Amino acid sequence: MKYSISVTKTTSPKEKPADESKLGFGKLFTDHMFLMDYTQEKGWHDARIVPFGPIPLHPASTVFHYGVEIFEGMKAYRKANGDISLFRPMENIKRLNNSAERLCLPELDEEGCLDILMTLVELEKDWVPHSEGTSLYLRPFMYGNDPHLGVHAVKNATFAVICSPVGAYYAEGINPVKIAIESQDVRAVRGGTGYAKCGGNYAASLRAGEKAEKNGYTQVLWLDGVERKYIEEVGAMNVMFKIDGKIVTPELTGSVLPGITRKSCVELLRSWGYTVEERLISVDELFEAAANGKLEEAWGTGTAAVVSPIGQLFYKGEEYVVCDNKIGELTQKLYDNLTGIQWGKVEDVNGWTVKVCNG
Ligand code: PLP
Ligand code: COI
């Protein structure tokens, strides 16, 4: 089912960024955004693309008080042949609906949501940057906006999509990042909202993130919330280790975000003949492997972060260097293949990319 989308174009389009090497992440936004409202009586209605700008909200809106908000992160790429395409967009749409279910927000029609994303990206296609390593980041999000303070599942919501031309998420680019393993704060627990992509998970992660940054680390690696023993994920990415030739990645226990880059990397690695173990891995096991010289590579996976080598791990006063603080061979191969598929330089044998329009 497609939603009927009205389009109001801006009368004052912005200048496109002249220097794509300075894009950074999520600082610039395109000319338009998508909005659609939900009420119990009407369901989803009033789907509209409008000029990018502030969204007025009632001061009692649920999102302000109880954090009823979910989001997604995905990218539109300009392929080598000029086509603009999305990467596995249905995976993001399904995850958005899983997040909605967890927070009692209304779900979206999957095909209708894809049509919304395609319509907006086509309208903003000139904003998809051209340089290698860049893309148009799409941030779909949904929030509850009942105008009263009772704590209940919302009856009113808004779905929105904004777009931002981006370069690398980390200042390090593809160079190894330094990660601090957090032993005090936890991000999520089983039965909580860890598997959902909701704003509250990120709010809960900020204190440890700030502490890590002050100490010179790029991001936090979270441990499980009960025993504080098992590795879960990094602030904005899932994590993988090459230990003695095998790949180990934390299993999806409910407190870890089921990353689409993670899933794609696992599928690629298995197709290359690697054994990939999705299982619990304790920080002790990891450091024992490091001490025995068996921790060969470590990397994170995420839409914003792509495939990001981990060069140093810090835990309870000790620092471990991984792969001589250089990008490992397999990490590089994953990065090259994944971005190769996204940028149309490597054949997309799995049909992961979805063409939106000609560039
Ligand atoms: N884990 C967290 C906490 C994230 O924010 C992200 C980013 O979306 C990921 C993992 C990676 O997920 P994906 O590969 O779907 O972008
Ligand atoms: C993403 O990779 O899309 C993310 O959502 C990570 C982060 C910017 C929150």
Outline the structure in words:
With 359 residues, this protein is α+β, with helices and mostly antiparallel strands. Helices cover 23% and strands 30% of the residues. The chain has helices at 62-66, 89-102, 110-123, 199-214, 260-271, 283-291, 329-342; strands at residues 6-7, 32-39, 43-51, 69-71, 74-78, 84-87, 135-144, 156-166, 177-181, 219-223, 231-234, 238-243, 246-250, 276-279, 295-302, 306-315, 318-321, 353-357. The strands form 2 sheets. Strands 1, 2, 3, 4, 5, 6, 7, 8 and 18 form a 9-stranded mixed beta sheet that branches. Strands 9, 10, 11, 12, 13, 14, 15, 16 and 17 form a 9-stranded mixed beta sheet that branches. A hairpin with a 2-residue loop joins strand 16 (306-315) and strand 17 (318-321). Helix 2 (89-102) packs across helix 3 (110-123). The chain starts with 5 loop residues before the first strand and ends with a strand. 43% of the residues are buried. The model has no long low-confidence stretch (mean pLDDT 96). Bound molecules: pyridoxal-5'-phosphate and 2-OXO-4-methylpentanoic acid (COI). Residues 73, 236, 302-304 line the site of 2-OXO-4-methylpentanoic acid (COI).
Determine the structural class based on helices, strands and strand pairing.
Answer: alpha+beta
**What overall form do the CA principal axes indicate?**
globular
Global mean pLDDT: 96
- Portion of residues in beta strands equals 25-35%
Helical run tally:
7
* Spatial gap, N to C terminus: 26 Å
Bound molecules: pyridoxal-5'-phosphate, 2-OXO-4-methylpentanoic acid
Taking all Cα atoms into account, the compactness measure Rg is 21 Å
Helicity range: 10-25%
The H-and-E topology, N to C, reads as EEEHEEEHHEEEHEEEEHEHEEEHE
Low-pLDDT residue intervals, each spanning 5 or more residues:
none
Write down how many β-strands occur, each being a DSSP E stretch of 2 or more residues: 18
| Main pleated sheet | 9 strands, mixed
